[in-house]
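Notes from the 1:1 (GR / supervisor)

We went over the backlog. Supervisor wanted to see one worked example end to end before approving the batch request, so GR pasted a single chain during the call. The sequence is below; no edits were made to it. Supervisor asked that the structure be written out right there so they could see what the output format looks like.
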Amino acid sequence: MEAIDNTEMVDTNTAGATTGAVAEYISYIEGDIEPMNLEHDFTNEALKRLTVATEAVADQADYDIKADMDQVREYAGMIASDPFETSHANSIRKATETLAGSLHKMQEAKFPQLSNEAQSLVDAANQIDPDMLTLDQKPAVKGFFNEAASLLRRMN
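Structure output shown during the call:
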């Protein structure tokens, strides 16, 4: 019974407080104290949580991004499979481009006042070099996740 009550509180929240999947994503990103490692645990988990948070905002805005999010899940799975694979940055770049593109399209359709924030996210995704080892570009990867948190907070 309590879960139903909590869901209703999330659905009727109009005060702009960050709730649900978006809050969980933001908490994960802001609570990151472990360095990015060869296994890409942080990046994989951040992509998963960002996907869920993006879907939650899209559901609230009545905007369909299912196909894009399925693609992001596939890319996230690729980076978790083999820690010694050298093409992880390519998969991360594709995932971040897809997420940024989906959020940008949703922003244009549902949140026109957030155009600068959405463009900042696209720019952050473009900062990830698909030909460079991910561990050599930690600030770019974390920068993308922080930009996404900022945009989702404003959309939520």
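Supervisor's comment: The chain has one domain: 42-155.
Batch request approved.
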